[in-house]
Amino acid sequence: MKKLAVVYWSGTGNTEQMANAVLEGAKESGAEAELFTAGEFTEDMVEGFDAFAFGCPAMGAEELEDSEFQPMFDAVLPKLSGKKFALFGSYGWGDGEWMRTWEENCVSAGQNPAVESVMCNEAPDDDGVNSCKALGAELTKE
Predict the structure, then answer these.
(1) Residue 52's closest CA among 113, 101, 108?
(2) Phi, psi dihedral angles at 39 (to 5 degrees)
(3) Beta-bridge mates of residue 120
């Protein structure tokens, strides 16, 4: 059975709603899954999981939150070799540039997301929730 870590940072609660939907989708598919904030998750925890869903909203000039999430993700990213992961998050302006940059940075570091990223404009609607659930289920498939 796959074990999934859902790791997120949320300022307004939108990305937290998405994280809970990812967790729900993984559990509904029969996987073991745990939810962590970026401040709770460390690089030492990577070995305890088979797959990861990382969530962070767009901040400032289309970038990741830089006090908690970015430092945690930078520390974890090199340890993701051989593990499945995906990205998700919400935004309130722009067109998702922060997500494209985040994906490109992962690929540049030699780590390719295994599942298509999920973005929601503001709070996730029903389609957004369902996409997040599907992301959680897909990450935990054998």
Answers:
(1) 113
(2) -70, -20
(3) 90
**CA 98, 135, 16 angle in degrees (round to 5)?**
60
Fold held by 3-139: Rossmann fold (3.40.50)
pLDDT at 93: 87
Strands 118-121 and 32-37: unpaired
- State whether residue 44 is helix, strand or coil: helix
- The answer to whether the Cα torsion of 127, 134, 22, 86 is positive or negative is negative
Could you say which residues of the chain have pLDDT below 70?
1
pLDDT given for residue 1 in this prediction: 62
Closest by CA to 128, choosing from 85, 84, 90, is: 90
The answer for residues whose C-beta is within 8 angstroms of residue 140's C-beta and 6 or more apart is 2, 4, 26, 29, 30, 31, 33, 50, 51
In whole angstroms, what is the distance from residue 92 CA to residue 29 CA? 30
Residue 120, both tokens: 């929601």
The full set of domain ranges for the chain reads 3-139
| Predicted pLDDT of residue 36 | 98
Contact between 67 and 52 under an 8 Å Cβ cutoff? The reply is no
